[in-house]
Amino acid sequence: MTLIGWAQIALVLAAIVAAAIPLGRYVALVAAGRARWLRPVETLFYRAGGIDPDAGQSWRGYAVAMLAVNAAGFLLLYLILRLQGMLPLNPRGLDGIPPYLAFNTAVSFVANTNWQAYSGEVAMSYFSQMAGLAVQNFLSASTGIALALAVSRAFARGGLQSLGNFWADFTRISLYVLLPMAVVLGLVFVALGIPQSFADYVSATTLEGGTQLIPLGPAAFQIAIKHLGTNGGGFFGVNSLHPFEGPSALVTALQTWAQAVIPVALCVTFGRIVGDARQGRALMLVMLGFLVAATLAIYAAEAAGTPVMAALGVDPAQGNMEGKDVRFGLALAALFTATTTGASCGAVNAMLSSFTPLGGMVPLFLIQLGEILPGGVGSGLYGMLVFALLAVFVAGLMVGRTPEYLGKKVQAREIKLAMLAVLVLPATILGFTAVSMVLPAAVASLAHAGPHGLTEMLYAYTSAAGNNGSAFGGLTADTPWLNTTLGIAMLLGRFAYVVPVMAIAGSLAAKVKTPEGSGTLPTHGPLFAGLLAGVILILGGLQFLPSLALGPLAEHFSMLAGKTF
Amino acid sequence: MTGILRPAATTVVLFTALLGLAAPAALTGLAGAAFPDQAGGSLVSRDGAVIGSSLIGQAFAEPRYFQPRPSAAGDGYDASAGAASQQGPTSAKLVEAVRERVAAAGAQPVPADAVTASGSGLDPHVSPENAARQVARVAAARNLPEARVQALLQEHVEGREFGLLGERRVNVLRLNLALDALR
């Protein structure tokens, strides 16, 4: 660890917070229907769909509309992938994607996960990438943000029957927030070296006379939304490590910024919607606190390297370099890894499978904590609000008082639904991992023996259910079993989670606002922030501790004992 | 039910047209006009023929060239199949591979980037320390004074971006091109 490394981390984090504040306020304006500069396009969408943007929807109406647009998106993407061979912009003449892989990939992109059991430059045509995958990068992000807006509104006033209109929120977020940001960032990315071209791959004759086939494609625009929408699916197989996807340290810093800025900004939006900026700030500080701690832990672990390498005669000065490229440096690799797993993005600028055992455990644990630190676009905020409800509930138990959050009484129904949502993650992750570790067809996919093998499998289901998408990449994921079960895990992690959350929002929206009294727990102060952090660690983290002990921790101690597998 | 199907279908189709076709096509046009070199892959040509991309590493085995990091992409530096080893820290396979590379690399300790596979398999850079260890070999193979090669290397050491971001590094392809252009 070096001072200049810390300076890099501090600079990027400061840029995230500095941009998040105005951006969060702007998103609140958009949510209120007050952004109008693309009005003709917006109106066209409503007219074509027969949509009345001012018609309020109940939580059920909102959730059904959300599910319908996601189902339609899945269907279209699945068809595009299957029919790839007949569609245009396919200079390599690639065939359609086989059914299991197409199912897995379509679910993955619709559920904002972007788990990839394929390699982009090998399997996907330019058309599939830009008109299929990239579109879902936008729409799954808009879905998440729309849901977060609906949940936020539930706390705004008393006696609400409507959470807003899904179609209006979805269309406005896509048009006024994501599209302009992706266009600007995409152009910046081209200027900094990321290709944006429909030309065929280029065959080069190297200095030593060999041939090198250089892939191209409309990459910059897709990579821009991949980070802004916390999607994370690489245009190229090795994701942001590919010199065309992450050509420089500046690009990797910008991508780190892009994948955290909207989730953090939505805390500000929340504060605006509920009319109390301090509430959003408290949530933001908890998110950032975890993010900084995780970055520190990864940076320390990777900079220390491993005793295995040192014993072989490798200079420890550069730290652990297996699976890392030289240009980014360890500090930006650590910060990128913490944000990509804390923010449910899943892009990588260093290969997690080759991290030190503890360095690799941190991203795994960040996902297991529920993808709320700061979480995916929208999903981070509504996930955090679920934990906020649980935190006030725990506080209420301690003093024997009906808990309230922002004046809304939190009662048995809300807590049952919140626990239902929170239990989706451990049930899916641990259930599927346990079955897969005894199923020969699944074990055959592992690249490693010993505890690292368990971590590979655990990471895969964690990443899928947490809608993250990063991987311990040794795993051979393109098999019928993994494609199917990981696809199901992604669906559960996204939709089985959010439906109970919407039910909570509907139930809370209808309640009256109780005025603040002397016995009310202030939910903007350090006491609440500490309580919230504790509930996240205990409720979110504790259930995974045994699996972490068997995976990364066992590997760490094996490594210290000089054992290899 | 039709009350849901129509907006869902039209919204997805219209957004596919806007975000999946119109916007990337417009951006491609704009990028090609404003930044044709970067948009097309930052290709490098010599004598009219494309010899690679300045962003992507390529394989060098001959002693007269500086050599890049170990690569797991295809047979090494296959740009259409970028890949990492994905080997974990307690992998016996990784230990064996690194042991062999260290043995071939001469005096210990060896800079880590010289004996570990990069994450992309296409890393265009090596650390300045790694490159410095290769100066004597390259100079001997080319019958050049070591000081000359050393000076050329120094010219090609890139500092941190804006003096802050990333690491100090040497682009191997650019350095080798400059070597070929000497005299």
From TrEMBL, chain A:
GO cellular component terms given for this protein: plasma membrane
Xref: Pfam families: KdpA
Family: Belongs to the KdpA family.
Keywords, alphabetical: Cell membrane, Ion transport, Membrane, Potassium, Potassium transport, Transmembrane, Transmembrane helix, Transport
Protein name stated in the entry: Potassium-transporting ATPase potassium-binding subunit
Keyword Cell membrane: yes
Organism: Teichococcus deserti
Chain ranges passing through the membrane: 62-81, 131-152, 173-194, 257-275, 282-301, 328-348, 355-373, 379-399, 420-447, 486-506, 527-550
Assembly behavior: The system is composed of three essential subunits: KdpA, KdpB and KdpC.
Subcellular location: Cell membrane
The organism's taxonomic lineage, starting at the top: Bacteria, Pseudomonadati, Pseudomonadota, Alphaproteobacteria, Acetobacterales
Membrane topology: Multi-pass membrane protein
Function: Part of the high-affinity ATP-driven potassium transport (or Kdp) system, which catalyzes the hydrolysis of ATP coupled with the electrogenic transport of potassium into the cytoplasm. This subunit binds the extracellular potassium ions and delivers the ions to the membrane domain of KdpB through an intramembrane tunnel.
GO molecular function, one term: P-type potassium transmembrane transporter activity
From TrEMBL, chain B:
Keyword ATP-binding set for record: yes
Subcellular location: Cell membrane
GO molecular function: ATP binding; P-type potassium transmembrane transporter activity
Signal peptide feature range: 1-22
Gene Ontology CC entries for this record: plasma membrane
The keyword tRNA-binding is assigned to this record: no
Superkingdom of source: Bacteria
UniProt keyword annotations, A-Z: ATP-binding, Cell membrane, Ion transport, Membrane, Nucleotide-binding, Potassium, Potassium transport, Signal, Transmembrane, Transmembrane helix, Transport
InterPro entries referenced in this protein's UniProt entry, alphabetically: KdpC
Annotated membrane topology: Single-pass membrane protein
Region: Disordered, residue numbers: 71-90
Entry's family note: Belongs to the KdpC family.
HAMAP family: KdpC
Function as written in the Swiss-Prot or TrEMBL entry: Part of the high-affinity ATP-driven potassium transport (or Kdp) system, which catalyzes the hydrolysis of ATP coupled with the electrogenic transport of potassium into the cytoplasm. This subunit acts as a catalytic chaperone that increases the ATP-binding affinity of the ATP-hydrolyzing subunit KdpB by the formation of a transient KdpB/KdpC/ATP ternary complex.
Subunit comment: The system is composed of three essential subunits: KdpA, KdpB and KdpC.
Name of protein: Potassium-transporting ATPase KdpC subunit
Species in which this protein is naturally found: Teichococcus deserti
This protein's encoding gene: kdpC
